[in-house]
Amino acid sequence: MAERTANTLKIREFPVEENPKHTYLNAEKGILSWLITLDHKRIGLLYLGSIAFFFFVGGVLALLLRTELLTPAESIIDADTYNQIFTLHGAIMIFLFIIPSIPAALGNFFLPMMIGAKDVAFPRLNLASYWIYVIGAVFALYSIISGAVDTGWTFYTPYSTQTDMAVVSMTMAIFILGFSSILTGINFIVTLHKLRSPGLSWSKMPLFLWSLYATAIIQILATPVLAITVLLLAMERIFGIGIFDPTMGGDPVLYQHFFWFYSHPAVYIMIVPAFGIISELISTFSRKTIFGYWAIALSSLAIAFIGFLVWGHHMFVSGQSELSSVVFSFLTFFVGVPTGIKIFNWVATMYKGSIDLKTPMLYALAFLFLFTIGGLTGIMIGALSVNVHLHDTYYIVAHFHYVMMGGTVIALLGGLHYWWPKMTGRMYNEFWGKITCGIIFVSFNMTFLPQFIMGSQGMPRRYFNYVDQFQGLHQFSTIGSYILGLGFVIMAVYLAWSLFKGPRATSNPWKSRSLEWMASSPPAHHNFEYTPVILHGPYDHHKPMREFRMGVAREDETHEEQVTAEKTP
Predict the structure, then answer these.
(1) How far apart are CA 134 and CA 132, in angstroms?
(2) If I label 431, which of 48, 252, 442, 489 is the partner at 20 to 30 A Cα–Cα?
């Protein structure tokens, strides 16, 4: 126990119980209690289970595509089925997996805990956002059953207005899913503004929360544009209103502007939360204070702002004016600046740090390598002269996967392994965690590095057949995808094993300084027994753990007393 006698405020250690009886996992029993729960932690796990299912479905579809591409001619599926599968792979992975993966799953679970709150600001709205997600997913699954879609996940006009596939039901699925994303963003912003514990100023907020804050801004501002776009597309098909039909005075390129005005900021909905996870991992496992806290925090907001201004780089070959292309090219280069700031600061944080190569840190290092390749190749195709040659080739496929999977998914896996002991109260097998990280890293590069080569040599993307010269590279890529799938199977096995046989986790196995690790593992139903008072930042690794004082306020203490105590030397 520590005291501040200047104003009689007593600060006590958290009453952490290593294996508490009243955790969120056993607060209520039965499936119904999970389906109608208002507990942010359970809702986070519901999201996590849902996105894991759709990741499995999208992954199986990807393996079918790669199997077909083993040979230049038709082998296991025909051309129409191939078009449907790559459309569904893209739509499922983008809208049902990767966009909600980090904010809705890990964000829902840990945001309230990291600010010392009992829950999000609007628990019922949080539950509603999950069920809206489920309804949207049902519409997407119905679309698969009723005829699928073969337009590509971008649903470009005029083909999407003319094909006889289930475009309306699939676009309505995306329309519904957008509401889930908007409600989650609103909930997070209000929670961060209104429910932070006493003493938790913006300068003491974990960088993961800054990334969720920036992401929520994008969700609220950009998602309505997508909703309007897919609604106009559905009205075009049903009523023939002519918004995108040139014979009726419309413009099919207008659809591209609408779609990418949302979809490029959506890239940052996917990757900015991943940046936040990496900041947590690198600081914790380097045992160092994060380098350039405000630079990293504000760069997340800068990415959120600049991300709205670069959509035109997807349309360099669509006939837009030369001046527009030059402006969008410059902005594409410019948006790389705040991202580069993050990478340099992460490397500076590791410099002379006491690096502990646990499984989460290995994923953080893999992220730095893979995402840097994705970022640098993005700068290349931001150049007009290069983009004209590489547009719609396998180079774009490789770049996109290095950013999305090499970035977002790798960071998600790092965050999942980092917070797994807190979520479940169990430790996974560290040996198999490291082995699996190595398998995923090597096989990912086997899968997508050859695609850079194919694209630079002119191999178009989305092609069912190809010339013989690319067969060797395609086969190497397909073998890599099989090994990558095996890596995820191994991960699923040892994580499932840990739920039943894994050693009990202590409250803070990684010796982290952020607030969620001050709760029990798994957390109590309302996270903390008392309201925390924040005395130090989440990255004060230069202080010994015994001096790392995060306390709990007595119930009879006022907010003013707590703030005064925090400012007292």
Answers:
(1) 5
(2) 48
